[in-house]
Specification:
This protein has 210 residues and is mainly α. The chain contains nine helices and no strands.
């Protein structure tokens, strides 16, 4: 009975070089026209090293998408820490939520990383398992839900299901902008900000404590 190949953790520097090279080639040439040999040459490693670290080209694509997604989630968590930490007064909440949303709608949604993720997922969705797309979509909800749960413990929100509250917040803010304008990138469209402000206020009407 065949056994599944164990992948090497290997050198972090080599892994980063392989992922960077693969990302560049997948974006430039597409998945089907990018060979493992070409990735190895651009990363200045052997083809065997690419296979040892990632197994096959599809797994490498998934790793590229996951790496970009994790970087974006890290940005969301930093923004949450910058804008929604240490709140103590209910009156602070609206401005803090608007500031968080506008930071995401300008800094993150206008970033090269976000554009890269969108292009890869849209162009290569046939090579990505659906469960991966769902996992990527759920990561921001999870981070925001954790913060809403903390705000509920502080008495600033009334939240029975933090993940559902995060889904509602995203739908009322970024979701409305995307449905109305096709994008929630406030750096590219000044119409995004008023929609986000009204979405935050609608969310607070439903979830504000007291």
């Amino acid at each position: 009975m065949p056994t599944e190949k164990t992948l090497r953790a290997g050198s972090a520097q080599k892994r980063t070089a392989i992922l960077t090279a693969a990302q560049e080639l997948f974006l430039t040439n597409g998945f089907d026209r990018s060979s493992v040999d070409a990735v190895a040459a651009l990363a200045k490693v052997s083809t065997r090293t690419v296979y040892d670290y990632f197994g096959d080209k599809q797994t490498l694509l998934r790793a590229v998408v996951e790496a970009v997604d994790q970087s974006l989630v890290a940005t969301i968590r930093r923004t949450l820490d910058d804008t929604l930490a240490d709140l103590t007064e209910p009156a602070e909440l609206e401005d803090a939520l608007i500031t968080f949303s506008m930071r995401i709608a300008t800094d993150m949604l206008n970033s090269a990383e976000h554009a890269t993720l969108q292009r890869l997922v849209q162009a290569e969705s046939g090579h990505l398992p659906r469960r991966d797309e769902h996992a990527m979509a759920s990561a921001p909800d999870e981070a925001l839900g954790e913060r809403f749960a903390a705000l509920a413990r502080a008495g600033l929100l009334e939240v029975s299901d933090a993940r559902l509250a995060a889904d509602h917040f995203i739908a009322l803010t970024f979701g409305v902008a995307i449905n109305r304008l096709g994008s929630a990138n406030a750096a590219g469209d000044a119409r995004v900000q008023p929609l986000i402000v009204e979405g935050v206020r609608a969310f607070l009407r439903a979830y504000r404590s007291g």
